[in-house]
Amino acid sequence: MGAAITEVRNHNEYQQILKEHPLVIALFTSQHCPGCMGADTRFNNIAEKYADRVKSMLLKTENTPKIEGVDGTPTLVIYKDGLEVENIKGIGDPTPSKDPNIPNEQEVLLAEVFSEYAAAIPTAPVSPGAPPPLPQ
């Protein structure tokens, strides 16, 4: 599925991405949002772990066409088979934990969302000619 997309030019491109991928997780941020500070790095770090099952989009609202349901930042939107299944306004406190062994609220929430939704999507075959994984 690949690394996070960081730009969509228009609403049609956005809709096409949703149609092409069974699971899309999009994080909308803005440059003047205190709750968005560091969210892009946290999102990308977690998204990379699920790149074989999740299409990730990290979109700045200043550079993205208006998307229905996104009226503040940060907003996390999850789509399955092109349909919105969850819309989370605010993704927790961006402040790092005083203990480096304890993830902050944003990391916890993002990890839980990716883990929960990706569990229902089979991993991509290793090569284009490889058979899909067997159901478990």
Instruction: Give the rounded overall mean pLDDT.
Output: 88
Count the beta strands: 4
Oligomeric state of the chains present here: single chain
Structural class: alpha+beta
Residue runs with pLDDT of under 50 for 5 or more positions = none
Largest sheet: 4 strands, mixed
Q: How many distinct helices? A: 3
Quote the beta fraction: 15-25%
Q: Output the strand order for the largest sheet.
A: 2-1-3-4
Order of helices and strands: HEHEEEH
Distance between the termini: 21 Å
Shape: globular
Radius of gyration in whole Å, from Cα?
15 Å
Helix share of residues?
25-40%
Task: Write a brief structural summary.
The protein has 136 residues and is of the alpha+beta class. The chain has 3 helices and 4 strands.
Account of the 3D structure:
- A 4-stranded mixed sheet has the order 2-1-3-4, covered by helices on one side.
- The longest helix is centred in the C-terminal third of the chain and has 14 residues, at 105-118.
- The protein has 136 residues and is of the alpha+beta class.
- It is built from 3 helices and 4 strands; from the N terminus they run H-E-H-E-E-E-H.
- The model has no long low-confidence stretch (mean pLDDT 88).
Question: Keywords, please?
Answer:
136 residues; alpha+beta; 4 strands; globular
